[in-house]
Design a protein that fits this description.
ThiamineP_synth_sf; TIM Barrel; thiamine-phosphate diphosphorylase activity; ThiamineP_synth_TenI; metal-binding; eight-stranded parallel barrel; binds ligand 3NM; alpha/beta; binds ligand LCLJCK34; TMP_synthase
């Protein structure tokens, strides 16, 4: 994951899923077009459920050349040789995640609405920083609000890629892309898309391309 390319789609799984049934939906999503990264984000599950999901879903991501990251659990990501992990401000600290995963893994950090947190993460070596939420979302009711001004300011001072997250849909992503976001990160806009997950991925990619063109 580098920030020196065009803006790309970063996909997060639903927080509750049954791995065998979800595998077909993941396959459909990744068949729908370009996805830069897949993050497994499970909530309220035990370690065995996490392990079953990693074992079933990571090969599908890899068959599409999509890096597979695990949210909150760099220990499990390391155990299964995943491509990396995403950690929040209340999770395993960045330095410990990096120690567990090694220098070549992708480690991203939630930075909410804060350029200061983002600088700290980038200086420590994070591969990307994540800003959000941009819009209201039921997926995770926002406590912080990020802005396109933050993305613009970030892009001017550093080359460390930034991810924009929170309520982002094909019809509201234009200003975020034009402000310089490297990745548009999405949960429901893909999984709940009326044309299915593949249609959702295609719709985001069309909207990103239109924003970059226009
Ligand atoms: C790419 C990306 N950005 C932000 C988050 C949110 O992470 P966090 O603050 O740790 O909250 P939970 O996802 O654990 O609810 C993310 N997962 N991914
Ligand atoms: C997991 C997560 N983190 C956020 C943050 O603001 O840090 S918003 C969010 C949920 C994003 O889901 P959707 O694309 O369905 O709005």
């Amino acid at each position: 994951m580098t920030g020196d390319e065009r803006c790309r789609l970063y996909l997060i799984t639903p927080a509750v899923l049954e791995p065998v049934a979800f595998a077909d939906r993941l396959q459909a999503a990744l068949d729908g077009g370009d996805v830069a990264c897949l993050q497994l984000r499970l909530k309220d599950v035990d370690d065995d459920a996490f392990r079953r999901a990693i074992e079933r879903l990571m090969p599908i991501a890899h068959a599409h050349d999509v890096p597979f990251l695990v949210n909150d659990r760099p220990d499990l990501a390391a155990e299964f040789g995943c491509d990396g992990a995403h950690v929040g401000q209340q999770d395993t600290p960045y330095a410990e995640a990096r120690r567990l995963l090694g220098p070549d893994a992708i480690v991203g950090v939630t930075c909410h609405d804060s350029r200061h947190l983002a600088m700290e993460a980038a200086d420590a070596g994070a591969d990307y920083v994540a800003f959000g939420a941009f819009f209201h979302t039921e997926t995770k009711p926002p406590r912080f609000w990020a802005t396109t001004e933050l993305i613009e300011a970030w892009s001017q001072v550093t080359t460390v890629p930034c991810v924009a997250i929170g309520g982002i849909k094909p019809d509201n992503l234009g200003p975020i892309v034009q402000a310089g976001a490297d990745f548009i990160c999405v949960v429901t806009g893909v999984w709940d898309h009326p044309d299915g997950p593949g249609g959702g991925v295609a719709a985001y990619n069309r909207a990103i391309a239109a924003a970059l063109a226009g």
